[in-house]
What we know:
Elements: H1 5-9, E1 17-19, E2 22-26, H2 29-40, H3 45-59, E3 69-76, E4 79-85, H4 95-100, H5 119-130, H6 135-148, E5 150-151, H7 154-170, H8 177-183, E6 195-196, H9 199-211, H10 214-218, H11 220-231, H12 238-243, E7 247-249, E8 252-256, E9 259-263, H13 270-280, H14 292-312, H15 323-326, H16 329-336, E10 355-363, E11 368-376, E12 383-385, E13 390-392, E14 422-426, E15 429-437, H17 442-454, H18 460-465, E16 469-473, E17 476-479, H19 485-493, E18 497-499, E19 509-515, E20 521-525, E21 532-535
Parallel strand pairs: 17-18
Antiparallel strand pairs: 1-20, 2-10, 2-21, 3-4, 3-11, 4-7, 5-6, 8-9, 9-14, 10-11, 12-13, 14-15, 15-19, 16-17, 19-20
Amino acid sequence: MKFNALRYMYPSRRAVVFGSRGMTATGQPLAAQAGLDILKKGGNAVDAAVAAAACLTVVEPTGNGIGGDNFALVWMKGKLYGLNSSGHSPRAADAAGLLAAGHREMPGLGWYTVTVPGAPAGWAALSERFGKLSLAEVLAPAVSYAENGCPVSPTVAALWAKAFGRFSEECGGEEFAPWFETFAPEGRAPLPGETWRSAGHAATLSLIAESGAESFYRGALAEKIDAYSRRYGAWLRASDLAEFRPEWVEPIGTNYRGYDVWEIPPNGHGITALMALNIAEAFDFGGSREYEEYYHLQIESMKLAFADAARYVADPRHMTVAPSDLLSRAYAAERRGLIGETALTPVHGAPSGGGTVYLAAADGEGGMVSMIQSNYQGFGSGLVVPGTGIALHNRGRNFSLDPESPNFLGPFKKPYHTIIPGFLSKDGRAVGPFGVMGGFMQPQGHMQVVSNMIDFHMNPQEALDAPRWQWIGGRTVEVERGTPGHIAAGLAARGHDVRIPVGSEGFGRGEIIVRTEYGSLAGASEPRTDGAVAAW
Length: 536
């Protein structure tokens, strides 16, 4: 990918990192270094990605865990592969029971939000198909950090304290006690620089490594999850875990100004970014992002894409509209025609036919990985399987209790999923992996970093550093501090309800690795967190 050479020399905040033989980029430096160590031991990009992902469950448990889901895009020997390792609802899932109990939307915490975790099976599937090293070798750094302890980084400590405060107020039941025993053994969240360790994590990761994740789904760990669920009359059973298999899927994509942008197909909502890019492609942004019309047109494109995603994206077995229809150029033109000079309140069309971690890895042989995993909201459901370190996610929170929705809660069904890895290619060659984590910010972040690099020729670090916007709903949009005042004022004049939050927590956290025109690797990490690029 070509960029203005001067932009490499004078980055806006910190420099792009270069390497040639391998690179990892994550939101936590210890995980990035673990991935690089695996590369130096003879592993490839997939080995490095799995190592970093497993480490992140220990060094950044505020955004993911062993009991979460993951997705990956893998470029290997000239082809892009997709892995959807998101779990389904239990067979006993009962929407009628929740409605009868007075629920009008899915609960945010507790057992009703727990779906089958897919992350361990995703690691094993990636390792088995593409890895060069054994899963035990690849997970060894994570086991070591869990057993021997790791110092807590600043952003992770802040998010940990926030979660502790919330759980202290909302998780008073006996079933939540293991979370406090595991993640707050001193009766509080750990402080920045303080060492935290978890023997339960270490033992569980070792079992996953030794069994190729079989223990988690059809062995001792599955039995422990089943017993915990039964103890509190919950839905999840060992039989649900035993039924789960990761799915290899064909990535979906669109061409944006000569570059192919790739995402995982639904039940993930990466299609939202692709729809928004399709709508926005016909607009001439004039080579500069420093004017309000650029912001306005991107925001309006994203709003329309989100309206369609909210209406149609679900478990693909239950969708009423094909992804190809949502991505058709004719439909994009139809939606584009709704955009005027002022802000609109979006509604879905009728086409025919926020806790997360992201990481990127590349090796010197051309392999590249875009990977994301999550417990959905922070630590997830607030439930930890006793003695295991397995924090169960609350991904079921994204089911609907509206019987008319394709995302209506039902047995053996995957929920609408917010985690999305991205990938760029051009003329059949890999450019590289990118991602921006953060719930419903993710497709918005994808659109913005892609536009920054392609429309405005920013280097990867600049593309991450640039101030972001986030559509919240209706006509409300948040703009990050650092956005020029005239842009905020101009958006307000166009009818947008503009808000400027105090911090940057809601604007996502990303990583990017691209292969340059010289064959070298250029990596960037998010300035809004503790991220790092480790290069060789």
